[in-house]
Hints:
The structure holds 2 protein chains of 2 kinds.
Chain A: H1 10-17, H2 23-46, H3 49-66, H4 76-101, H5 106-116, H6 125-134, H7 138-148, H8 154-161, H9 165-185
Helix pairs in contact in A: 1-2, 2-3, 2-4, 3-4, 4-8, 6-9, 7-9
Chain B: H1 4-14, H2 33-46, H3 67-87, H4 105-123, H5 125-129, H6 133-139, H7 153-160, H8 166-209, H9 211-230, H10 234-243, H11 245-259, H12 262-275, H13 278-287
Helix pairs in contact in B: 7-8
Amino acid sequence: xxQDIPMEDDKDLLAAFKVEATRERAYTRIVKKYQExxxxxxxxxxxxxxxxxxxxxxxxxKIWTYLENFREESNLYTWMYRIxxxxxxxxxxxxxxxxxxxxxxxxSGLSNKLQAEKGFDANKLEWRLQQAIQSLPDKQKxxxxxxxxxxxxxxxxxxxxxxxxxxxxxxxxxAVKKVEEFLKKD
Amino acid sequence: MKRNIDIQKEWEAIGAKFDSQIALxxxxxxxxxxxxxxxxxxxxxxxxxxxxxxPVTEEAYSVPPGYFEALPLQxxxxxxxxxxxxxxxxxxxxxxxxxxxxxxPQYFDQLADQLMHKIHAEVAPEEELSISPLLASLKQSNxxxxxxxxxxxxxxxxxxxxxxxxxxxxxxxMFAIRRRLSxxxxxxxxxxxxxxxxxxxxxxxxxxxxxxxxxxxxxNVNVKASKLLANIxxxxxxxYVEQHSEEFDEFILEANLASVPxxxxxKNLEAAIGDISDEDIQAYLNTY
Lengths: 186, 288
């Protein structure tokens, strides 16, 4: 019976997804397993919940569409992070274009979004850390978030961001230094 | 490199007498140049205080005292610091506490269902058409038409295929030519038909216009026939009439009956038949 299929491991989930009868159940399990991690990865980049929700849904729609063709050359988790990262960067690029059309600054737009968040307090260190993260270039921001919050190994990160581990280490080092400088400023 | 004097000595030794014809290299080198050259080079590269070669000038750039001595240790410390930063996933003095407000608790519970609903809505376009039967019915109909000429695709592809079969290769181009010939034939047939119709119409028109001419022609025929009949001897005519008298009777009788109107003819026949009795007929038959 389909309900007896073990679906805890990613390989089991993938195998179940490729069977028509268990596809939706496997997909639901995948969503439940990774939704929070991907949500917070996206949320820290786009800041507000509505944008994060839009991007997250697009990510999972793409996962549904392309999961059947997933070749298992990398971890499912890594593959999903790559989709999430690309989708987030695409969203931020669109935001940048939109803000350039309206003659507004994208960075200040993100800062405004951050300040509009419920419970924002510029005196609190955790909020200042978020401000420091938003001041980073997009690539360094991604590296910092994946390393600092998700504690992703460089080898996996290199697959997600398609960058060498050496370059990722350098990026993270630069990002940490910039964050520290930002926090020391005030 | 041999010196000129050595070369001349060698020539003399072998008895060669072309020293006046071939000029020796005219470049001159200092005496004992090559003998002393290795020592000169060695002294230039090995002795720092040599004054013979390149003059040593004062260094324009200055290095802090003890810099090179301290450099390896300094680099090592920097590498360790780099490693400590990149290896660790935390920053000293900072916590990973999430300041963002988490979404409503049911958000993550309902996300999978929302996604499935969205996926089903996106993957079933036929279901969307159920709200419009008109559009659903039009989906299968194609207003665009292709030419009616039915082309055998296999034959066409067989020409493209690099197969060695000559028949299939030759048949497909002939197919197209036949189609063209067929059309040409139809055109020719139509042209001929039109030609005949027009010709018939022209003949009819000419016939109507040329009646007097035709009557003249028939008159000429009659004249010729009369002349031919006149040439027939009377004896021959008498013999022919005797031999075919019955035919002439029938011919005359038929001619008379034909000249009488149908109604009247019927009446005369009925009257004649009615007046003759059966005995008269029997007697007539017995007599003749």
